[in-house]
């Protein structure tokens, strides 16, 4: 039996797709998995911040089209890159076990955020990271940085930045963990919803594919990501807004931390609530409502202009 995975062709995306391919072929010896490499609009528009050209949906649009057209059975995504609303007819029934969700500081000269010199140039493509970095160090000069992980590291090595901030998960998956100088705590930089989690998207009516990929689902990662995405969906924020969310299981309870900030980091709203694990969606909405009560809508309205 043959299955096809739609994937972007960046090194990290290919690593992720190959990992899923290997797991599926190990679980199902009678299944052969083929990769369909695609170039997305996001891969072609590296000179412009994503929030100016359509957001994270540009990472997945071509992959989802391949699913809907029947050219692929599934697509593998970094959940932090998946829009909060999926196209009709598609679903993400499987979320694999979460890798390290933290943000990581990478620098050739400095070991921590505190050690960076005054007015240091730090690279990031994320408004979420930018706002939290500036809240801690208003003197920093945050500069636009896009491209795949290898490209970003090369720009750092070429001296364009004193430091850059990347997702620890991507660095570890590609074998670059030795480049990490320090990890940012959740108090310093709350992650993006779904950061570190791989999601497998397929057609809602494709029951066979759903059965085959089901063993790869990690229930705790699925529940935590569901809460995080519910919060972001309720707030209506994409990558054009500094929004962060991170959930974790505490014994049998689910704890969710949420954040909305101004781009300059001057104003940061936080909410932390706990509920039972079977109420992940409701917990996400509750945290979103708490942030709105604190004035998050004013920030969201300003950034939407």
Strand and helix map with partners:
Elements: E1 2-8, H1 11-27, E2 32-38, H2 41-44, H3 61-68, E3 74-78, E4 90-95, E5 103-106, E6 121-124, H4 127-136, E7 141-144, H5 149-157, E8 163-167, H6 168-173, E9 180-183, E10 198-203, H7 207-213, H8 219-235, E11 243-250, E12 253-261, E13 268-276, H9 280-293, H10 296-304
Parallel strand pairs: 1-2, 1-3, 6-7, 6-8
Antiparallel strand pairs: 3-10, 4-10, 5-8, 5-9, 11-12, 12-13
Helix pairs in contact: 8-9
Protein model, in words:
- With about 300 residues, this protein is an alpha/beta fold.
- The protein has three domains: about 1-95 and about 195-215, 3-Layer(aba) Sandwich (D-Maltodextrin-Binding Protein, domain 2), CATH 3.40.190.10; about 105-185, 3-Layer(aba) Sandwich (D-Maltodextrin-Binding Protein, domain 2), CATH 3.40.190.10; about 230-305, Porphobilinogen deaminase, C-terminal domain (Double Stranded RNA Binding Domain, 2-Layer Sandwich), CATH 3.30.160.
- Helices cover about 35% and strands about 25% of the residues.
- The strands form three sheets. Strands 2-1-3-10-4 form a five-stranded mixed β-sheet, sandwiched between helices. A five-stranded mixed β-sheet has the order 7-6-8-5-9, sandwiched between helices.
- Strand 11 and strand 12 form a beta hairpin.
- Helix 8 runs parallel beside helix 9 (about 280-295).
- The longest helix has 17 residues, at about 10-25.
- It is globular.
- The N and C termini lie far apart (about 50 Å).
- Mean pLDDT is about 90; it is low at about 50-55.
